[in-house]
Known about the structure:
By secondary structure, the protein is mainly α. The protein has helices spanning 2-33, 52-65, 70-98, 112-130, 135-153, 155-169, 190-194. Helix 3 packs antiparallel against helix 4 (112-130). The longest helix has 32 residues, at 2-33. It is globular and about 55 Å long.
Amino acid sequence: LRNWLGVAGVVSSLGLMCTLLCTASRMLEGMATTGCLPAWMGTQHSKYGTPWIAVVISGITTIFLSFLPFASLAEADMLFYNLSNILKFVALVKFRFSHPDMPRPYKVPLGKVGMIIYFAFPCVLCAVSIFLFSWGSILCGLAVFLVVSLLYGLRHPLQVLWMAVCSRCCGCGASDPKKRPKEKGSEINLTEYASLS
């Protein structure tokens, strides 16, 4: 029984790893579709329809991270998880202010002030839990967070620069999002983002 439990644990871990690689690659594909990442990162396989470049990038990143200590990986994971939760809560409240009259399949039954008070508590909990980590993890995580935020804010100038370099080097215009053919389902539906706010 002990041996069978060991085999089951290995198979379960392998399945979990494959699931994480697939979900992470779809996130990269979605960011490439919306213009937050270069368009080539969302390239799909001609036969299977999978974002194979994003899968390769996720796999290489996972292999690199596997050499780091487990405690550091756990702290980094929870750090970015808490930061992402804070961003979600802030975006939810901001969307209620910027699009208050948009039809929503489900709406949090609170007003604007109620939304701020309601989501302030989990934001404070996430912020407090972040400062329970080691200072090295906090500084590294905040540095990565600031760099990513800066790149996101400069995504349009960087995209223009990338298109200029591509057109100068190889004369291709495929990197221009206006010239790329839109894939089915790539249009952003603003109502979906408002559905839970």
